[in-house]
Amino acid sequence: MMNFKTVVEEYLDTPTTRKMQTKSETAHRRLNEMCKAWGEIPLDEISDKHVRDFFRGVKKKRLAGGTYNTYVTYYRALMNFGMDELNLIRYVPKVKSMPEHRRNEFLEPEEAKRLLEELDPIRRDLASMCLLTGLRKTNATNLKIDQVSKCGSFIKLPGVLMKNGSPLEVTLNDAAKAVVKRRLDMVKAQEQRYPYLRGKIEHLFVQDSGNRKLNGRPITQMCNDTWRNAVERAGLPRGTCVHHMRHTFASWHKRQGTDPDVIRQLGGWESMRSMEQYSHVTAPEVKIAAGNIDNII
After folding, report:
1. Which of 189, 242, 249, 296 would give a disulfide with 137, using CB separation of 3.0 to 4.6 Å?
2. What is the tens place of the pLDDT at every residue in 207-248?
3. Burial level of 57, CB count in 10 A (0-12/13-18/19+)?
4. For the chain, what are the domain ranges?
């Protein structure tokens, strides 16, 4: 009988059913955590108690409901893969999802300003880039210098890096151009300060901590204690994360009257339906229409 770790490896090597893409970074992270608990256990010996104990530990992290549910999603996907595709098991121990208490998942301009003021420089620039362009966190943190156009006016992301599999050209407004220029200047300064990095820095948002092992490397953890403490100091709700910047990007555009299809193209959403999940503000024309019957009664 294959153990849990072996099944995970096979599952992660299998392209997604819907779009034949590689499994997401989140899938890798969540399943690797499960491997630490169950890796050597044969799949058919994963019991209800194993599952209860693991998810009890996840709950102790006090994660938002949506984040907790990503563990549930990938646990179920993996176990169903073992049952339906590999025919290794006939029973999958049950686990319940948590309620997701949705709030308006976008920031008002004053909230965004407060957050940016509280963040450390690299997280401030990354959050700004996500707010200004709608980039997903992984696309921003892994952004390479050669993906920025020579003129500095746009970014080109290949389809293999995109959730929908389609390449995306991101137009940079003046504020985003300023962020890019600042980071490029910082990269040059870092290469001058640390000769061993000359010609070796590939990414735009890289660390400069004085630690030889970290210098010149992209940041790997955005939403750590540094982020959470900044969120608290800014007076924002617990659970405010980098992904809210993408929601904010779409919502601000909608509020300013940007055509919905243009918002979809700017943010690289595959469909209008998927884009609308990210825009939480009534468009100006809808507000005007609502006032059309103000004086009828």
Report:
1. 242
2. 998 788 899 999 888 989 999 999 999 999 888 999 899 999
3. exposed
4. 4-85, 109-284
